[in-house]
Design goal:
Elements (H helix, E strand, L loop, with lengths): L1 H10 L3 H44 L1
Keywords: Membrane, Transmembrane, Transmembrane helix
Length: 59
Amino acid sequence: MLFLLDGYFKWKGGEEIRQVCRTSTIGMVVGIPLMAVSLYLGGLVFGYLDVYVASLKAN
């Protein structure tokens, strides 16, 4: 699949297009895990806050 895309962009005469695609792929590979980690950490923080508030209400 990637080979076909590579051939297509070569045919279109786009070294710059391929460069942009490579850059955006790298951006995705780096960005998605970072997003997942931040969502996970956010979830942990909200979870702890929720438990903390619940324990305050219980007392």
